[in-house]
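Blinded run. Sample ID left blank on purpose so nobody reads anything into the name before looking at the predicted structure. Input follows.
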Amino acid sequence: MVVLGALAPHPPIIVPAVGREELPRVRAPRAAMETLAEAVAAASPATVVVFTPHGNVFADRLMITATPRVEGSLARFGDPTVHRWETDLELAKKIKEEGERVGLRIELLTAHGTQAALDHGVLVPLSFFPASLRTVRLVVVGMGLLPLPYLYRFGECVAAAAARCDRRTVVLASGDLSHRLGGESPYGYDPAGPEFDRRLMELLGRADVMGILSLPRDLVEKAGECGYRSLVMMLGSLDGQAVEARVLSYEAPFGIGYGVALLRPTGPAPDRRFGEALRATQMEKVRRRRENESPYVRLARETVEAHATGRPLPPEPPDLPPEGATRRAGVFVSIKKAGELRGCIGTILPTRRNIIEEIRANAVAAAFNDPRFEPVEPEELPELVYSVDILGEPEPVTGLKELDPKRYGVIVSRGVRQGLLLPDLEGIDTPEDQVAIARRKAGIGPDEEVQLARFEVTRYY
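Blinded prediction complete.
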């Protein structure tokens, strides 16, 4: 059973052998971490599960370290002390089984043989553990980039596996908060940074799980945090439990937010089964979206579904616009799952006889050939939503003043390198942001001269 959840920062500077003369500046987070470690010891766990954003992180799966032993040091930060732990292999395997049972992609990392290295996201919090905790076993999980409902569900799987193993388990979410609070932060300042930290710590102090899960995506992204997803996973491990929440500390001495909190389950609470509510809400959104989807989107979806299941292509929707069979245009097909991108492939200029063929080809490519993602699996199909962008003719522009990221997409070119970004994307509010992202997609440096073109799209949902 999960007996305690915790949020812990991981700046190496709070470790005495690293921080040295800077220790007075991190007195509050250090004291809070000592209190956290005492609470963990009092919970008498057999195993500590740690979610770290600095381990093996993937967009479409979660990675559990499954070597018999793990070890590491903060030598690169100035502390050569080596810390060694045994891995709870039974619990790791049970977590994988629980996850796969509900359709999550989980890998056990065994490639290092008998021993794996620990990152500072694990080592810093655990360096505060007293000697009485040195015999507990670890399960180290790389924080995933999956949509929030799936990260939360993974936490539920941790709790289910701990119950199956009859294992007293502490779940530790390692992560700093906003890195964009100004001051000495190398990441600068963004107003979203202090707003994100303030709201998150207030919600955490009330154990307001749905409030935390509902934080605006652009706020989270602009804050530049590294602990939010770890926290969501930890909250999932407390699903269905009444929780006593206690914020121990929040400070940002170097322009990066350090939050420390404890969440203690106090008994079953059916009204706190947020995972079920999340999944029901998600499927209702998909149902409503499909009830109102355009013929072009239905064409893309049914093409992907036929391809994924090995069925013949269905006939074209009867209400397709006549231009679909007569006009040629570039087309992008985007696929999302629980609000997160699952695939997007398109053509700037037409490559097929007509729009219908362009949509079919790019729908298949987005679902199965986007190099950023694994191919779509048949069991995912009920959760996917689609959009189709039909591109207008690109027109050259001379500078950023002629761009508007809400109205125009942009094409950035230098020789054979070319990057495209569609218009009206969440979190992209300025031409500078739009061009910078398109440059990165094309592998074009920020100081290289480029040619710019803009285009309009007609977007179908």
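Unblinding after everyone has recorded impressions. The radius of gyration is 24 Å.
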